[in-house]
Amino acid sequence: MRIAQIAPLTEAVPPKLYGGTERIVAYLTEELVALGHDVTLFASGDSITSATLAPMSSKALRLDPSVRDPNAPLTLMLEQVYRRRHEFDLLHFHLDYLPFPLFSRQSVPFITTMHGRLDLPELQPVFNTFSQAPVVSISNDQRRPLPQAHWAGTVYHGLPEKLLVPAAGAKPGYLAFLGRIAPEKRCDRAIEIAIATNTPLKIAAKVDRVDVDYFESKIKPMLAHPLIEFIGEINEQQKQDFLANAIGLLTPIDWPEPFGLVMIEAMACGTPVIAFRHGSVAEVIDEGVTGFAVDSMAEAIAAVARLKALPRAAVRARFNERFTGRRMAEDYVAIYERLAREAGQANLRVAAE
């Protein structure tokens, strides 16, 4: 198939550091190319891909201080995709609901993966208005606030099979926290769990500008404890050692997590996960195999002692079964083909009339 992947412009594809959506777009694009599809990636000019790159900005907007209005290049990208739409069998957007108004008024099949939280009340009228725009969820739980949406399927995220692997001879000696420092991610809970279990905790996380005050007031004072080590933001290469040498990953979230990419990154390394039972957690974690979904701090603290009883080879084996990039790409292709068939049938009906 001739497929267009349309990525956000905030980060490169793949991102230089943090960037969950752009990372998934990169993995999906590479797997689609490997499967033999003709893929064009609409993304920032500093993106790296084996597909055909259609650069929509000189570099990732987060890294370009000269761009003061990020909506301007994004608007131009949507127009470029629209003008080129007939070059493709299917358009796959990763821009939330932004494509709905324009692309609902044309005939080339399109799909949008919803990567974020969907429980915000302002989304209700959007999905009421565009109830025929096909969308993909990244967990079944993510769909709950928007039953009126035109759900074309759920596709769990996946990672390249050899991107992260268990480390030979690893001697796990600490708990890990990976991602962002933000109120909903509850790094404070991770610190409290580590202290309560007398277990070292390493924190590899970015602090967005909007969360600086939260970090300074709530988290930074907690970092003085001798068990706690704050590493900061790490890149893809650093994740391997960081996760593979951890006893377990703590994901003590306090929000409806749409998927939780860090959980399967840990599983790829054979590292089990303890996560609070919100959003996608119960779907991603295989209880007692790849980790534990908990409902309280007491349960989380008790679960730490149970981590070492989970065979790390079994954690990796379940990752192989459920969360590879190849499985993700094949799931998307099945949706693409179905939408293309339906569009073809619709066009035939219109022509007959």
From TrEMBL:
InterPro entries registered for this protein in UniProt: Glyco_trans_1 (IPR001296), Glyco_trans_4-like_N (IPR028098)
All residue ranges annotated as the Glycosyltransferase subfamily 4-like N-terminal domain in the record: 18-121
A Pfam cross-reference name: Glyco_transf_4
Domain of life where this protein originates: Bacteria
Keywords recorded for this protein, A-Z: Transferase
Protein's UniProt keywords contain Protein biosynthesis: no
Glycosyl transferase family domain location: 171-306
Keyword Transferase: yes
GO molecular function terms noted in the UniProt entry: glycosyltransferase activity
PANTHER family in the cross-refs: BLL5217 PROTEIN, GLYCOSYLTRANSFERASE
Protein name: Glycosyltransferase family 4 protein
